[in-house]
Amino acid sequence: METITKAEMKKALSDKLRLNFGCTVEEATEANMMKACAMVLRDVMASRAIDTRKVTKKGEKRQVHYMSLEFLMGRSLMKNAYNLDALDAIKGALEDFGFKSADVFEMEPDAGLGNGGLGRLAACYLDSLSTLEIPATGYSICYELGIFKQKIVDGQQVELPDDWMGMGDAWLVPKPEEVEEVHFGGTIREFWDDGHLHVVNEGYTRVLAVPCDMEIAGYDTKHTNTLRLWDAKSPKPIDMDLFRRGNYLQASEEAAMAEVIAKVLYPEDNHYEGKSLRLKQQYFFVSATVQSIVRKHIQTYGTLKNFHEKNVIQINDTHPALVIPELMRILIDDAGLDWDTAWNITVHSVAYTNHTVLAEALERWPQNLVESLLPRIWQILTEIARRWQAKVENFYHDENKVREMAVIWDGEVRMANLCIAGGMKVNGVSALHSQILKDDVFHSAYVMEPEKFTNVTNGIDHRRWLSEINPGLDALICELTGGKDYLTKPNTLEKLDEFAGDAAVLERLEKIKRANKEALAKYVKREQGVILNPDSIFDIQVKRLHEYKRQLLNAMHIIYLYQQLQDNPNMEMRPHTFLFGAKAAPGYAVAKRIIHLINSLASQIAKDPICKDKLQVVFLENYRVSLAERLMPASEVSQQISTAGKEASGTGNMKFMMNGALTVGTLDGANVEMHEVLGDENMFLFGLKTNEVQEMRRNGYNPYRLYTRDPAIHRVLDQMNNGFGDGVRYEDLHERLLFGNGSSPDEYMLLADFASYCEAERRMVDTYADRKKWNEMSLHNIARSGIFAADRSIADYCDRIWHVPYKK
Ligand code: 26Q
User: Which is the catalytic residue, given 355, 624, 780, 784?
Assistant: First the structure.
């Protein structure tokens, strides 16, 4: 593959600066330079994307359309430079120009168009889709504001807008000529003509969807796919025609709707709220996407009859579920197909990935909202629901099943059931999670249509999450495994297992980790003014703040350690640094209290001289992709401690493992599969298993009894109740752990797992003292992480769901 030379890069950069910013290299700011770099790479990718599209069209290849309300892309400059084999050229050019390349890269804001796991997964998959040379397009919304920026003020979370455009839009190419029009509201008129029933939607509000494309280069290939982000625009500033006809209210409504639709990403993770603006976002993006796919399909094939043979639409959770009735609408109303033909095409085009079993995260939209906002879609939904119900009745002859499996029930549209009815496949995101879907959440549908259900375990972009962010480790791997093969063949990492007995290799591994810890300490000092001790254990829990993820269990264990130190200030103790990073949904009060508690605890420990060089707690502000990229290489302990059965997969767990951290965790989500390859001896498992959690719930979980019988639990909870040095008391959290939310005892069973968790942490700390043993375990973790590469996940999607070929 041709590489861009440094000289060519310098020429391209100085041309861009002149033409786009009207400045010379000498006059350019770091920000100018960052944008110029992005534009140079963007040009290369744009031209490759054209070639890719041509080949796809000519070869009449089946295309994958990945629809997601979230793509948590993070930064792209280093990634794209890396995949285009231009990283050395860029760095060299920047240094020649007198810039520090790291400082220029640092100018790029994260594209934070997602909340957490689901959004980051979509971003990792885009990289693999290109690398495996699969004709694919991602679709989402071009949110003006991404996930909020988090500040910690007096120990509490404060949200600030994430205004990423301006600096972050350097990668985007607007395609105004490919605009689509989306309709909301209005009324439905039906009439007979030519022996056919025609349905028209009138008096609707229009919003224009303008594509802003971001090209996605693959690694070691010229194949380049596109992420299409829809921006909302009003049809005209004020529609003069409507205005003249006295319809100026409707005209300004169009402007108002366009103004807000693409304004902001909803910051709730794993939680559904039935907000009408969110439904507008979903339909806006669904309708624009389906129209765009259909338009291109007709351009190539001139018919929609073979739509399902040439397209597969993967939906990232139920958020794009309206794609099912929208595709039906276009096939029936616009293309004139009959219901059965349209339905056959639809069910063979759409596949649904479920990402959560939490009841509060399952989408159920109020019928009234759907009916008034999307009258034609509502009609189609009622017909889908009616036919599905007939099928269920015919299979089960049981009204309980009819109720449970209904698409519309009790004034609500149930999106998961819609996806099961209207999709060809349903998959979970880890072996355990997919099993829970079959046994429990979707059991009745599984019995009726078992062949629909499958598993694709999540994966991460290992080129980003290992090679790019951990160059020290990357170099060692290349040396030991004989070159860069592992970048395209992640299972090559297994070769590392052979070096488990090699003392020199283990020592080098430790040195690499040590250097990464120092780099992190330097960064944290600079950003937050906190000094970390690189000789301490770096024990990290970073993920969204949610009760089921049990950050509070981690905090309780730290309180327990702190109390031991208070009893015995001279206690021998390996220095231990606990790092947290987590955003709480702005409306999630309990999650915000937990953040506050961690900060209260951190400041009390920081002030207490007995903790010096022994215990430290740091809450890292504004956890995001670019911060994760600094944390993973420096991590030693990975906290994956959700209540068994609650975390669908987790992907942070994989990032830690790949960077050689050891996991303290429950048998939940993908931890189960990590355990399968690692065995008990290479991770620190604890806690109830999924079936034990269920059993304990059935038998009546009694946290209060644990509180009265276990003095350690008693004391930790009392400390929460009495509060910390800052005078803030956490009676509410104390109450919640003992008595739950009023209707059921603590759903997440922290107290049930507390003793077992403390014991696992103890084992971990003891093992840490044996450096050789620890490094050996770390090496095994890296060696066996290959199955968690996104390339493997995408290959599984190809084999099990999409039936498209991929580069082997
Ligand atoms: C839905 C309706 C209205 C508003 C918001 C939402 C919403 C938004 C985001 C619901 C859920 C989410 C995000 C879910 C999520 O991130 N799930 C995680 O997905 C990861 C990738 O599969 C898994 O690894 C995690 O286990 C899972 O929690």
Answer: 355
